[in-house]
UniProtKB/TrEMBL annotation:
It comes from the Eukaryota. The gene is LOC125550681. Transmembrane segments: none annotated. One of its GO terms (cellular component) is cytosol. Pfam families: Diphthamide_syn. Keywords: Iron, Iron-sulfur, Metal-binding. This is 2-(3-amino-3-carboxypropyl)histidine synthase subunit 2. Coiled coil: none annotated. Gene3D superfamilies: Diphthamide synthesis DPH1/DPH2 domain 1, Diphthamide synthesis DPH1/DPH2 domain 3. Belongs to the DPH1/DPH2 family. DPH2 subfamily.
Length: 507
């Protein structure tokens, strides 16, 4: 039987809530932990002794790793207790308390694997982990030190620490600043918690403090000397091959990386699948340069600064001579995005650990804000560095427009290198909207040759004209002429009795 009190840290959670006199608290669970939600709520209510109302939240509108401030605001919650895996993105309006859980870890096996990697590598080792394994880091440190002494081995092994377990709301501060605002609490079950070029953007998760450089990524923090670089370290990840690991591996893609699989109790050096993702992202950046109409997908309503980056993306796209539409639709999928065939590329504004949306099955590619900066900004070239957290891109600086007259580039649409004349660009500037509509219509007609396809017909200059010009308009059922063969007309009426059902006489 699962020890609810220990696994979900009931006493520590109750202490936090009592200390701040919260009376309306939202308990947020991911799908895989919902089975324990009722038991956790009962145990926490018993520990609090009454006086506080607890509400269980599930099926979040966006991503379960982010604090669901929208759902919590519907019940006027004063605080959110977040259970399970978290991206540790800073909140905007509500304080949050995090319970990461205690996933099992074979300390002796992990210790031997760590020392083997240290012996084989000439580099110092930096140990990172999923937050659900942070509870075991102290035991791992002690076991490693003891084994090193018995083997007379002098291994240079460094450990990351948990940044914090609670946050205070802020519209602009980073997760580290929010942690420092939380009444000085910097612990998690005994663990201490603590733009000139592209490289500057990528290293913005790093702060130089005296003779050390401090990094914060995915809820973890660590320090290295200013005389060293991250490339000088071997990264040893403890945990699953999930979004948190992808965030670390792509951000520090020039480092040697080893992942210890906690289920199989063995380590793996193979991160080739993530490097393939990186190469595909480069392809999407090049493809996005040819887009004329860009959709901005809002993938979060709670992460601090999301409105700032949305506005920055609008300005960036406008400065590049393109049109943009902002779309809020919850979790995006291919069916939802297919309702906007005018958009040739989408920019997904989301937290760092859900930003990489696989768009292979989509009609148009989906890129991150960082990739949008590369595609639409002037003089940006990809050096291999990568950034997933949009908060590190937020800037008050005016974006520089890509100058088509200064450089030739390869166009995926035209199939060769193109170089536009500056004078011609200025001459056609007044007709931008009409030109974009014509290009979009041409691209869509080329992409879809099926006469039954659900697409708009004719030219348009604005969003409402796009909608009116379509032959079929989705859920409203409004269309001109017969519905296409590919469209199945559903049942009408109420669930208690659809219009095509025979009325049953009461017995």
């Amino acid at each position: 039987m699962v020890d609810i009190s220990s696994r979900y840290e009931i006493p520590r959670t109750a202490e936090f809530l009592r200390g701040r006199a919260y009376t309306r608290v939202a308990l947020q669970f991911p799908d895989e932990l919902l089975k324990d939600a009722a038991a956790v709520a009962r145990a926490l209510r018993a520990e609090l002794g009454g006086g506080a109302k607890l509400f269980v939240m599930a099926d979040t509108a966006y991503n379960s790793c982010c604090v669901d401030e929208v759902g919590a605001s519907n019940i006027d919650a004063q605080c959110v207790v977040h259970y399970g895996h978290s991206c540790m993105s800073p909140t905007s309006n509500l304080p949050a308390f995090f319970v990461f859980g205690k996933a099992p870890l074979d300390i002796s096996s992990c210790c031997r694997s760590l020392l083997d990697c240290s012996r084989e590598s000439s580099k110092p080792v930096l140990v990172l982990c999923g937050l659900e394994y942070a509870h075991a880091l102290d035991d791992l440190k002690r076991a490693t030190v003891g084994l090193c002494k018995s083997d007379c081995q002098n291994s240079e092994i460094h450990y990351a620490e948990v940044l914090c377990s609670e946050m205070s709301p802020s519209s602009s501060s980073t997760a580290e600043e929010q942690c420092s605002q939380s009444n000085g609490s910097t612990h998690n079950d005994g663990l201490p918690a603590h733009n000139d070029d592209l490289a500057t953007l990528v290293n913005s998760c790093c702060n130089v403090e005296g003779s050390t450089r401090k990094y914060n990524l995915g809820g973890l923090t660590w320090r290295i000397s200013t005389d060293e670089k991250m490339d000088d370290y071997l990264l040893y990840w403890i945990g699953q091959d999930n979004s948190a690991f992808a965030n670390v591996a792509l951000t520090f893609n020039k480092c040697d990386i080893v992942r210890y699989d906690t289920a199989a109790n063995q380590f793996s050096r193979d991160v080739s699948h993530l490097m393939k993702i990186l190469r595909r992202r480069y392809y999407l950046v090049e493809k996005a340069k040819d887009a004329n109409i860009v959709g901005i997908l809002v993938g979060t309503l709670g992460v601090a600064g999301y409105l700032d980056i949305v506005e920055q993306m609008k300005n960036l796209i406008k400065a590049a001579g393109k049109k943009s539409y902002t779309l809020v639709m919850g979790r995006p999928n291919s069916a939802k995005l297919a309702n906007f065939p005018e958009c040739e590329v989408f920019v997904y504004v989301s937290c760092a650990q859900t930003a990489l949306l696989d768009s292979k099955e989509f009609l148009a590619p989906v890129i991150t804000p960082f990739e949008a900066v590369l595609a639409f900004s002037r003089g940006r070239e990809w050096t291999g560095e990568y950034l997933l957290d949009f908060k590190d891109l937020i800037s008050s600086e005016k974006p520089e427009v890509v100058s088509k007259s200064e450089e030739a580039r390869f166009s995926f649409i035209k199939g060769g290198y193109v170089e536009d004349d500056c004078a011609q660009e200025n001459e056609e500037h007044s007709e931008t909207s009409l030109a974009l509509a014509e290009l979009t219509e041409k691209a869509l007609s080329t992409r879809n040759q099926n006469s039954d396809a659900v697409l708009y017909q004719g030219g348009a200059k604005s969003a409402i004209e796009y909608l009116k010009a379509r032959s079929y308009r989705g859920m409203t059922g409004e269309y001109e002429g017969p519905a296409p063969d590919s469209v199945l007309i559903g049942r009408t009426g109420r669930a208690a009795g659809y219009s095509d059902e025979k009325t049953k006489s009461p017995q």
